[in-house]
Amino acid sequence: MSTAENGEEALTVLGKIIINAAIIDLKMPQMDGLTLLNRIKTLDPRVQMVMLTAHGSIKYAVKGA
């Protein structure tokens, strides 16, 4: 298991190890969760992702699908 403080750090971790799943917060410093989700999909579409947030809406849920 690995953790990252923000999206840029998460991408750095992804460059070093293979992951099966990621739990992503929608609101993060430096890069929002939707941007990170799309970058991860580009790098490895097999990674399963769960998006969490205290600021969610239907609009964001549909946009991330």
Question: Could you give a quick summary of the protein structure above?
Answer:
The protein has 65 residues and is α+β, with helices and mostly antiparallel strands. Helix content is 40%, strand content 15%. The longest helix has 11 residues, at 33-43.
How would you describe what is shown here?
The chain is of the alpha+beta class. It has a single domain, classed as Rossmann fold (3-Layer(aba) Sandwich). The protein is 40% helix and 15% strand. It is built from three helices and two strands. The protein has helices at 7-14, 33-43, 58-64, and strands at residues 21-25, 48-52. It has a two-stranded parallel ribbon. Helix 2 links the parallel strand 1 and strand 2. The protein starts with 6 loop residues before the first helix and ends with a helix. The mean pLDDT is 86.
